Amino acid sequence: MAGSTRRSSTAPARTSPRGGASRTAATGTARGGGRRRIIDYPRRGYRGLHRWLPSWRFVVGSILALVFLCLGLAVAAYALTDVPAPDDFAEEQASTVYYSDGTELGTYQGPNRNLVDYEDLPEYIGQAVVSAEDKTFFENQGIDLRGMARALINNVTGGETQGASTLTQQYVERYYVGQTTTDYLGKAKEALLAIKIAQTETKEQILGRYLNTIYFGRNAYGIDAAAQVYFGKPAAELDLSQSAMLAGLIPSPNNWDPAVSPEKAEQRWNYVLDGMERDGYVTEADRDALTFPETIPYERSDRLAGPNGYLLEYVTQELTATGSITEEMLQRRGLRITTTIQRPVQDQAVASVEKLRSGGLSDGERPADALKVGIVSVDPTTGAIVSMYGGPDFLADQINRATRGKAQAGSTFKPFTLIAALENGKALTDTYQGYSPQEFDGWKVNNFGFQDFGTIDLVKATEQSVNTVYAQLNLEIGPEKTADVAERAGVTSPVNALPSNVLGTDDVSPLDMASAYATIASQGTYHKPYMVAEATYPDGDVAYSGQTQPTQPFDAGVMADTTYAMTQVVQAGSGSTYIKPIGRDIAGKTGTSSDNKSAWFVGFTPQLSTAVALSQVGENGKDVAEITPWGGVTQVTGSTWPAALWADYMTPVLQLDNYSTPTPFPPRANVNADRLPTAPPTTEAPVETQAPEPEQPSTVPVPDGLVGMLSGDAQAAIVNAGLVPAVKEVFDASPVGTVLAASPGPGAQVAPGSTVTLRVSKGPKPQEPPATQEPPPGNDPEPSEPPAGDAAGDPAGG
């Protein structure tokens, strides 16, 4: 009977209303008639989307399998993780810096460390560090799972990068691994190692070794060395306030040193003490009674003495700016750092400056001790800094005059306006009125020596540095375009968008100007300047490479026309006295700021761009002061000692093997020359304060017969010729007041308003040979008196 009640296995399947086998029957068939699979996916017996949706059993099972797999891998990884030997500090070596030819330039000071026992330290030192770095240190098992999860989610979702390293993990990284790890796999290995070490070392051992290992800035490794360099005492004698300050430095000691950033140092000090009060290590009353501790001055090692100190400091800045190399690594990891500094070029820069300071360029007369000199040379084809002179001694003056000693640029900014004009439809053949003075809505502009020019084109205006023409040009195209060109060319300092920016009202560094002119020299290709060619670890792995990909912010034709105009400055303008005799294709520009507080010559060949800047500080060593004239010039302008120094430096450099082959500039492109010439709009024409004078001749002769005249008669003849007299008295057997020589000499053709220097006898000096060398003429085509400017301040235009 039982068999009669059992449904026949051969009974026909029920038909669904849709005409197919029912799902139940189909499922039964699948379960009974088919071969069972371990994983039923895609799902049998289902159609359409349901066939591809996993069952809840499959989902749960997969998750559990993944969890157990991860746990198994973690257990295996933990079991296979061996605690390595501590990093061998006895084998640590300081990094070494090299010239481009491989000879040593300097080294970093090695670790300064005094090992101390944790038991000998006041208890609050460790408590301060724990409150600042890992408040759960005494309770956790080496890692903070919640912190790691929070940091991972934040980093994956695009938030600001966070870390979650416990104090034990930091200890592992510094004491065992010996270098910073940033990738997730490396962090995972460190976490496993931290867990294992937390089981094998006591909290006191970990904290003590951490305090002996950590970097506190000022080349101090470990708490005892830090106590010495910041407070002049051993760590065992530190008080609570001092301990809290040192604990606050740990994340960024070089930036939060009280000598660097007192505000940040005190902020961190308060943060540590607040944490100690929170964690019960100090009472509120004790906390309120504390004051921020006073530190002692940091005395740097003499390894930074002399001019090379500026180079080593710049190398440090460039490498640490990457974020992947720290100063601690430079002092511990033994990096080999090859710079782009070419030793023969650098040596010549130093020698030329010493020659200037000793009076070797000026007939024995020395400049003021307060004179500051900055020089930078950049390779236009790569952006490599091949030389940098920031000062005579880094220890005596830590302001690098090549990078941080900024000064008004004067007329070295005019090429940026010329570039902007050429980009906006102007041509070199466009003409403007060059008379002086001219006034533009209250802005009064003069030319050098108040000389007048007739209708001149932009080449002549560049050659003679005609302020009134360039003021018109800047107003016509818009001063914001001049600022934009300067930025694109390589000027990193802020440039105002006022009309006066064409006259160089903004402070810039020699590095900025050498880099910007290098962009012109490379016909519009910008290379970010760099000094470190490569830094490698002892095993040869590359830690840093300085050269970056170039960009092309300018049209080559615009650069060719700009270069052509700048060559005329050297051939017939303010650079002709010193630069033209070098005998190479050179383009450049002089510059002098208001009240002669800075003087520049920036010039380039296709192979090298060099900026020379002179400035002077006041009696307090900080204020900007007028450059004291010396050597027979009445004012230091760009065409005098900056040009003389540039020439003395570059003449032998251009004879070196890698620069000795002359390379011509591209020919003049005549951008926009095929359009119909247009006059400047009448709305931007200057408001004339006087009728334009007749066009003046481009050159005038120096009067004949000056030698032998009395000084007064000779000066009158020079004035009548439209020139400016300058007098230098020298000892001579001739009668007092007799003119002995004139420079430029009688008959020489010079620009109107140029200076003619007279050497005049002041009588014999017993047992002293008379001076015979002629001083350089001060014929920079820039105003001898600064014109009235706008509210932003209008420089002399030099």
CATH third-tier fold name of the domain at 371-653: Beta-lactamase
**What portion of residues belong to β-strands?**
5-15%
- Just name the CATH architecture of the domain at 371-653: 3-Layer(aba) Sandwich
* Major sheet details: 5 strands, mixed
Give a description of the structure.
By secondary structure, this protein is an alpha+beta fold. Among the domains are: 43 residues; 179 residues, Penicillin binding protein transpeptidase fold; 283 residues, DD-peptidase/beta-lactamase superfamily (Beta-lactamase). 34% of the residues lie in helices and 12% in strands. It is built from 24 helices and 21 strands. The strands form 7 sheets. It has a 5-stranded mixed beta sheet with strand order 2-1-3-12-13, with helices on one face. Strands 5-4-16-15-14 form a 5-stranded antiparallel beta sheet, sandwiched between helices. Strands 18-21-19 form a 3-stranded mixed beta sheet, covered by helices on one side. The longest helix is centred in the first third of the chain and has 25 residues. The protein is elongated, with a radius of gyration of 38 Å.
Provide a concise account of the structure shown.
The protein has 798 residues and is of the alpha+beta class. It is built from 24 helices and 21 strands.
Task: Using brief descriptors, characterize the structure shown.
798 residues, alpha+beta, Beta-lactamase, 12% strand
How do the helices and strands line up, and which of them pair or pack?
Layout: H1 2-5, H2 23-33, H3 56-80, E1 96-98, E2 104-107, H4 123-133, H5 145-156, H6 167-177, H7 184-200, H8 203-213, H9 223-231, H10 240-249, H11 253-256, H12 262-278, H13 284-288, H14 308-320, H15 327-332, E3 336-339, H16 343-358, E4 371-378, E5 385-389, E6 407-408, H17 414-423, E7 431-434, E8 438-440, E9 443-445, E10 453-457, H18 458-463, H19 467-477, H20 479-489, E11 507-508, H21 510-521, E12 532-536, E13 542-545, H22 556-571, E14 587-592, E15 598-604, E16 609-616, H23 641-653, E17 700-701, H24 711-720, E18 724-730, E19 739-743, E20 749-750, E21 755-761
Helix pairs in contact: 4-10, 4-12, 6-7, 6-8, 10-12, 16-23, 17-19, 17-20, 17-22, 19-20, 20-21
